[in-house]
Each structure stands twice: as structure tokens, then as C-alpha cells.
Amino acid sequence: MSESNKILKNKLLVYQTKSGAVEVMINKQKETILLTQQQVANLFDVQKAAISKHVNHIFKTGELEKKSTVSILETVQIEGNRNIKRNVEYYNLDLILSVGYRVNSVSATRFRQWANKILKQHILQGYTINKKRLVKNYDAFLKTIETVKQLLPAKESQVQTGDALELIKMFANTWLSLSAYDQSKLPKSGTSKKVARFTADELSDALKQLKNTLTKKKEASDLFGRERQADSVGGIVGNVFQGVFGKDVYASNEEKAANLLYFFVKDHPFADGNKRSGAFAFVWFLNRAGLLKKHKLTPEALTALTLLVAESASKDKEKIIGLILQLLK
Predict the structure, then answer these.
(1) Burial profile 228-259: b = 16 or more Cβ within 10 angstroms, e = fewer
(2) What backbone torsions phi and psi does residue 159 show, to the nearest 5 degrees?
(3) Taking Cα atoms as reference points, which of 252, 253, 298 lies closest to residue 279?
(4) Confidence label for 114 from pLDDT (cuts 50, 70 and 90)
(5) CATH code 1.20.120.1870 region(s) in the chain
(6) SS (H, E, C) 183-236
(7) CATH number corresponding to 146-327
(8) DSSP assignment of 138-171
(9) Which pLDDT value is given to residue 32?
(10) What confidence tens digit (pLDDT) does each residue in 43-97 have?
(11) Between the CA atoms of 285, 287, 293 and 298, what dihedral angle is there, to the nearest 10 degrees?
């Protein structure tokens, strides 16, 4: 099926390219693709009966459930001089893809070849790229790559490739927003409204537990977590919760978490273990604020983020905090 074989219905355009890729243009207000049986038949260039046979088999084997993949929508059809209302079944994307792996046609074969290639790329490389969309935003994409490069020393960075890739995965949904780095348009505030509070003693106790755990594993020395000056942790907590005219300087949980990590890593409150303590305090506070499950930081991503803070220039503090806030959006 060529690119000229298209289905246009209610601002929904679905077609198959020469490579077999299914391209979709859909109204942004819609959250999924819904096609009638006839539209699916047109897409894969077969008769409706073939689609019906495969759909029935899919439901019979339990691969998919009809309730979650088929929607009944009322449509109006013009028959003669009358407008006839009928309930029509619409298939969602899951069902359309399953049918595409069963249909016997040239178009379906092209589709499977394309889908297998995309799936293989995603499994082996961990990502896939829509080149057409990338081209439209190519300048912004390149700017983003340069942004990450600029934040780290060219030769002496401690950030390992694997860790950096984990961090990049977390930023994957915000690449274009990151292109605002040079214009200082990164977020300056968080979105959480109810602030989670804690005392310096509570954080100190948690850090002591961390030290005990690492010491038992022989991953920390006696210097780990030893304060350089009395109440260093208290000073950092005071900075995070500082207020002006009765209002917190860092108003949201996201801002407090970002600055907590930054202060621990940059102020060096301990004789040893500042980065690990800072990363721990960051995650500890996110968990306390109920944000940890939402963001699912992997150990590798957390390592890269912490080293990113450690190796950044002091003049870039606002930008680094902005990047962390972008991550926590």
C-alpha cells in the first residue's frame, strides 16, 4: 500500500508508508487510535471478513480482551435523504497491531517487517527515534546534546557512560524543554503545593543509619558522614527551609529536594561521603514528600545526576537546579 492510500475520518489520518510503517496523524485531544473494521481492512489491504476472522481468534485465545480494545460509538450515516444513526465498533491500537501480525497481504508483510525492525532496535539499543519528528526539531535536539556536554569537563568527568545514559533516559520526555538551557528558561519552581517538612535531627539520624549500613558492607570509612563543623547538616536544612517575609524561599518540595542535593554536594559538610550523603538526602526527601514513586530514579541515573552537580561550575547553579526541577516535573 502506498502513501496515497489513506484513511481520513474525523481528523484522523492513518496510512502505511512504503517501508511498512504505520503513520498516524491524530487530533491532539484524542488519547488513542480508533479505527473501524473497514478502516483496518483498508490499512492492511484485505477484506473485512479477514479482519473479523483474526479479531475473533485474538479474543478466543485470550491474547486481548474485547472489553478493553473495542469501543462502541454512535455514528451518523447518510442513506438517501435520511441520517441513520448506528452503533459501530472501533478497534484500538493494541488490537490493530495484533491484527497486523496475522493478516496475509503485501501491506501486512511490510508492516511486520517494519515493526520487527523497530522492536529489535528498541531491545538492543534501548531507544527508537522517529526521524521525521526529529528533523522538525533538529536544531533543538543538537542544542540539548551540547547542553549536557557543556555541563561536564571534557576529559576529567567521573560520569560513566552507562550512568549518563540512565540519566538521559529520565530526561527523554523533556529533551526539547532542555533546549531552553541557553536562554535560562528552565523551571524555577516546582508543582507540589503541600510542603513536606523535616528537622535536621531527623535527617542526621537517617544519615547515621546510612553510615551504619555502608560500614557493615565495608563501603564506608570512619570519616564517612563526619561533620567538618558542628551542625553542618543543620545549616543545610536551615538553608533549604529558609524564609523571607513569612514565605519559604524554596516554595515547593521539588525546589527543596534540588537544593538539598546541591548544598550537600557543593558545601562539603562532611570529611568524606558528601556525594553519597547528598544523593541519599535527595532520595530520602523525595520519598518523604511522596514524589519518589512518581519519578523512579535508578541508581545509575542518581549517580550521574549527583556527579553532574559535583562537576558543574558554581556560576551554573541556577541552571543545574533548573535541570533537576525539569527532571522532577
Answers:
(1) eeeebbbbbbebbbeeeeeeeebebbbbbbbb
(2) -70, 120
(3) 298
(4) confident
(5) 146-327
(6) HCCCCCCCCCCCCCCCCHHHHHHHHHHHHHHHHHCCCCCCCECCECCCCHHHHH
(7) 1.20.120.1870
(8) HHHHHHHHHHHHHTS-TTT----HHHHHHHHHHT
(9) 59
(10) 888 999 999 999 999 999 999 999 888 988 877 767 777 778 888 888 888 888 8
(11) 60
Helix (H) or strand (E) holding 271: none
What cell does 260 get? 538539598
Whether 319 contacts 308, CB under 8 Å = no
Cell of 243: 524564609
Do the Cβ atoms of 25 and 12 come closer than 8 Å?
Answer: yes
Find cell 491532539 and name the residue: 28
Give the DSSP letter of residue 27.
-
Which three cell numbers, joined as nine digits, stand for 113?
Answer: 517487517
Burial of 184 (0-12, 13-18, 19+ CB in 10 A): exposed
Phi and psi torsions of 212, nearest 5°: -60, -45
CA distance 4 to 290: 50
- Over residues 135-153, the mean pLDDT reads 56
**pLDDT at 207 exceeding the cut of 80:** yes
CB-based burial, 124-157: b 16+ in 10 Å, e otherwise? eeeeeeeeeeeeeeeeebebbeebbeebbeeeeb
Residue 219 CA: distances (Å) to CA of 21, 118, 276, 281, 297: 50, 42, 11, 18, 22
% of the chain beyond a pLDDT of 90? 20
Cell 542518581 identifies what position? 302
What's the residue count for the chain?
329
How many H helices and E strands in the chain? 16, 8
Return the higher-pLDDT residue of 163 and 253.
253
List of residues 6+ apart from 300 with CB closer than 8 A: 162, 163, 165, 166, 167
3-state SS assignment for residue 84? strand
The model's pTM: 0.50
Q: 523512579: which residue's cell? A: 296
